[in-house]
Specification:
Blueprint: E1 2-11, E2 14-25, E3 29-33, H1 38-41, H2 43-53, E4 62-68, H3 80-90, E5 102-104, E6 107-108, E7 114-115, H4 120-129, E8 134-138, H5 142-145, E9 152-156, H6 159-168, H7 179-184, H8 200-212, E10 216-219, H9 226-231, H10 242-254, E11 269-270, H11 278-282, E12 283-284, E13 289-290, H12 292-295, E14 300-303, H13 311-315, H14 318-323, E15 325-329, E16 334-338, E17 342-347, H15 366-373, H16 378-381, E18 386-389, H17 395-398, H18 407-424, H19 439-445, H20 450-462, H21 468-484, H22 491-499
Parallel strand pairs: 3-4, 5-8, 8-9, 10-17, 10-18, 11-14, 14-17
Antiparallel strand pairs: 1-2, 2-4, 6-7, 12-13, 15-16
Helix pairs in contact: 2-3, 8-18, 8-21, 18-21, 20-22, 21-22
Length: 510
């Protein structure tokens, strides 16, 4: 007897339907074909134990299982449930109704318990696109799958529950999820800028970075508050839109980081250790998975102590920072993961950790400084719009009892600035905020008056700012003007933007 069960395979952050065909005929043997990996090939041992624990038995005949399309690699243990169900249906032990209406996925324990699997959200989206009535998944994947509307989601904790559903079709175990209510709900961040005493100029810089989506580098000695400021940046970013939340959740679903939760409604904050490999950062591997830069999609990637990262690791970020996506090429396929994130990095000003004029600094030669800063390439620095010095907070500021301005208040200004940018770039493809403008768009949207142009020229001559600083200053000045709610860039906007280019100033090396 031949039976067909519908499953799904994840490719990148999207899914493709897979047909599991089970044929039972006279003879002896168990044959699994269709380009399965080792985890799929080992499923026969899990399935045999689970089937017997549930009161069924494996037929003593020749079992042939084909997973189509045959040229698509099948990975992981998520095919346990559809294969087991196909064997039981093909052998006549289970008689389901309307089996073709459902997409079924799940991993089996030896006692028949269903374990969660990766990539359920893209699977559910594909099931909806292909016209399935619904999707049957393990209990812990229920909320994630139910994010997709107009499709039934039923979640089960045991194989016997799933079989009972297919034979009798009762809806008590249907999972509901109110996506709009979750996105509308307000989640106050534990980390708030009101806890940061002093550092007003740096908080202003963080506000500018958030408003324009600019990458930022914080330069200061240990204990100055660089990490404290960076961790609070997500609290002033605009809330995720529905499309952003879905795309972010898909990436985390494929990476297996959902942990039974529904949609991700807060912007990610990823802070990998400096020992991270280039594959772990950008993604890839033998069985490609999203890296840290994709897990930070629509959020913040924080690299603490930037010069401590391996040069090769930092260099692989250059293309994703420019293209807002990362492409992983293999001999037989190419994957693309989204990677639109804000880069926030921190570093010490000198090898000893202190500024040149600090009493704790032993003093460093220009060669030592050049060697230290040389760990960060010019092309990478070229993609960072803001680099500012973070000075330690004096005791008088630390002893102040009144709280500083809250993240909620700052966030309102950031949202207003982002709305102005959304209106400006409504007809510009692939540009959502100021940091994404190219040279042509900078010329169009960042026109300067004669006085502003003269000020910028004077600053570049006197401070000997590099050529790469020119476009960065214009982008940042455009964002500062948006925060003020004005259409034209004026002298004060240019002057403030110039302050945010510390590493471009001649003499910064000491």
């Amino acid at each position: 007897m031949l039976t067909q069960i519908f499953g799904s395979a994840v490719f990148g952050i999207d899914a493709q339907n897979v047909i599991i065909e089970v044929h039972i005929h006279p003879g002896v043997g168990y044959h699994l074909v269709g380009l399965p990996d080792n985890a799929v090939k080992e499923s026969n041992h899990r399935i045999a134990a689970a089937v017997m624990e549930c009161g069924y038995k494996l037929p003593g005949k020749r079992i042939t299982i084909n997973m189509a399309p045959a040229d698509l690699r099948k990975e992981g243990a998520a095919y346990d449930v559809p294969i087991a169900l196909g064997i039981l249906v093909a052998s006549g032990q289970v008689v389901p109704t309307h089996l073709e209406k459902w997409l079924i996925m799940g991993e089996l324990s030896l006692d028949g318990t269903l374990r969660p699997v990766r990539g359920v959200l893209p699977m559910a989206l594909q099931a909806k696109a292909d016209g399935f009535t619904g999707i049957l998944v393990p209990q812990e994947n229920g909320q994630e799958a139910a994010i997709v509307d107009s499709i039934e989601v039923h979640a089960f904790s045991h194989l016997t529950e799933l079989i009972a559903f297919l034979e009798k079709y009762h809806i008590e175990n249907r999972v509901e999820y109110d996506l709009e209510a979750q996105l509308r709900s307000v989640h106050k961040s534990i980390l708030d800028f009101e806890d940061v005493k002093g550092q007003e100029s740096i908080k202003r810089c963080m506000e500018v970075a958030a408003a324009g989506g600019h990458n930022i580098l914080l330069i200061g000695p240990p204990g100055a508050g660089k990490t404290m400021l960076a961790k609070r940046l997500p609290s002033i970013l605009p809330p995720l839109s529905t499309s952003e939340a879905l795309e972010t959740t898909k990436i985390h679903s494929v990476a297996g980081q959902m942990k039974g939760s529904g949609i991700i409604h807060e912007r990610p904050f990823r802070s990998p250790h400096h020992t991270i490999s280039d594959v772990a950062l950008v993604g890839g591997g033998t069985y490609p998975q999203p890296g840290e830069i994709s897990l930070a999609h629509h959020g913040v990637l924080f690299l603490d102590e930037l010069p401590e990262f391996k040069r090769s690791v930092l260099e692989v970020m250059r293309q994703p920072l420019e293209d807002r996506e990362v492409t992983i090429a293999r001999a037989k396929f190419t994957l693309t993961y989204p990677a639109s994130f804000m880069l926030v990095a921190s570093m010490n000003p000198t090898p000893s950790g202190y500024f040149h004029d600090d009493k704790a600094s032993p003093g460093h030669s220009a060669a030592e400084m050049q060697r230290y800063l040389g760990k960060i390439s010019g092309p990478l620095l070229d993609r960072i719009d803001l680099h500012v010095e973070v000075q330690p907070v004096p005791f008088e500021k630390l002893a102040q009892t009144p709280l500083a301005e809250s993240s909620a208040a700052i966030r309102e200004r950031v949202i207003a600035a982002r709305e102005r940018q959304a209106h400006r770039f409504a007809d510009v493809p692939q540009v959502h905020h100021n940091a994404e403008m190219n040279t042509k768009q900078i010329r169009k949207f960042c026109a300067l008056s004669k006085s502003s142009l003269s000020l910028l020229k004077t600053a570049m001559d006197r401070l000997r700012l590099s050529a790469r600083a020119y476009d960065r200053i214009l982008k940042v000045a455009r964002t500062i003007a948006d925060l003020e709610g004005v259409d034209h860039i004026n002298d004060s906007h240019i002057a403030e933007a110039i302050q945010y280019r510390s590493l471009d100033r001649e003499g910064w090396l000491g």
